[in-house]
Specification:
By secondary structure, the chain is mostly helical. It is built from seven helices and no strands.
Length: 119
């Protein structure tokens, strides 16, 4: 026996005598068994530390994140810094704002959606 044969317990001569198809089947079976063992090891029962962290996690209601985001918006608690508009854009923007007060807001609108699209 060679050192390789001794290392694998005499299996190598037996594998060398097999056809390539049979070697592939044995290799596939070996890999399947190895993966099954790894999967079984990964699915061990959780420890006490794991179960306590799951029990202590806060329960969130559906829509709670949206409600919190809207509350932050109303309160302004997470508002960004005021960014100034500089240059000609500032002048045009300010003029447009001032011009908006020249026209009163109507109580009702007289045009329909069909009429708006035909302009």
């Amino acid at each position: 026996m060679t050192s390789t044969d001794q290392k694998y317990g005499g299996i190598m001569p037996a594998l060398n005598s097999l056809s390539s198809l049979n070697k592939s089947i044995y290799l596939l079976a070996f890999c399947t068994l190895m993966l099954a063992g790894m999967a079984a090891h990964a699915q061990e029962s959780p420890t006490e530390a794991d179960s306590t962290t799951h029990e202590q996690a806060p329960t969130r209601r559906i829509g709670e994140a949206t409600t919190n985001a809207l509350q932050m918006q109303v309160q302004g608690s997470h508002a960004g810094a005021n960014l100034p508009i500089l240059g000609p854009a500032a002048s045009l923007s300010w003029q447009r704002y001032l011009d908006s007060y020249k026209h009163p807001i109507p109580e009702t609108f007289t045009r329909t959606l069909d009429e708006v699209g035909t302009r």
